[in-house]
């Protein structure tokens, strides 16, 4: 297991960086491929009869390129699109989309719907027609998820061997939350969700709390670590995270991977909050270096 605990940001480059002709985290490529330039493409993905709004960050070059599917959290105020740009500069395509019922995508939002949406998007990204049009290598797919997106990435990838590697950034463990929440905590979470009426459609705080409670075991990411034997996994956490605290969400998952004999686990702890607000470059460094070494 690789452990990079970066409480001092200056340590990042020396601890985990690898040699590269240019630094995709902080600099643009030295030259542009005029035939296959980097580009932004609109995309629509289909899941259970609903259309999901998405975009594709196309890496320059003929490819085919490894492709990262970037999964946002609940409701998705932090979309991490700065990571998408850095990942693309590193030679990966990046696919970003909104789940059913989120930010204008069709259908109703639910955690199970989001899980299905991720699986459906993986299938469509790997489809030969989509892959040819977007210069995708269908055998090199990574999931990179933040908060609820980390839960989705680990849960879906545990059932999808086609996913080459998985990153969970301040990832939530909805199953553990469902098993350990007091009635007061559940009610507070429901009220918080009800405040997000704009981004989410077709649901309510009470409905989502009920879904988590009813699926507590199935939503427990710790129960899924055995599925990642031989696959690279990146876990990133923030010491000042009050939404998915290190001691509650990160440390137990790391211990579960260690107990399962994980040999390709990388963990990074940054001195920042749930959205990595003060350490965006450090976050990009951790993700890009992991993708270009462990996941390439």
Given helix and strand content, the structural type is: alpha/beta
Fourth-tier CATH superfamily name: Alpha/Beta hydrolase fold, catalytic domain
CATH class reads Alpha Beta
Number of domains: 1
How many distinct beta strands? 9
**Order of the strands making up the biggest sheet:** 1-9-8-7-6-4-5-3-2
Q: What form results from the Cα inertia axes? A: globular
| Average pLDDT for all residues | 92
Topology:
Layout: E1 2-6, H1 11-16, E2 39-47, E3 50-58, E4 65-71, H2 81-89, E5 93-97, H3 111-126, H4 128-133, E6 136-146, H5 148-159, E7 163-169, H6 174-180, H7 183-194, H8 205-214, E8 233-238, H9 246-259, E9 265-270, H10 280-293
Parallel strand pairs: 1-9, 4-5, 4-6, 6-7, 7-8, 8-9
Antiparallel strand pairs: 2-3, 3-5
Helix pairs in contact: 2-10, 3-5, 6-8, 7-8
What can you tell me about this protein's structure?
The chain starts with a strand and ends with a helix. The chain is α/β, with parallel strands linked by helices and 296 residues long. Helix 2 (81-89) crosses helix 10, helix 3 crosses helix 5 and helix 7 crosses helix 8. Residues 5-20 have low confidence and may be disordered. Helices cover 36% and strands 22% of the residues. It is globular and about 60 Å long. It has a nine-stranded mixed β-sheet, with helices on both faces. The protein has a single domain (2-12, 36-293), classed as Alpha/Beta hydrolase fold, catalytic domain (Rossmann fold). It has helices at 11-16, 81-89, 111-126, 128-133, 148-159, 174-180, 183-194, 205-214, 246-259, 280-293; strands spanning 2-6, 39-47, 50-58, 65-71, 93-97, 136-146, 163-169, 233-238, 265-270.
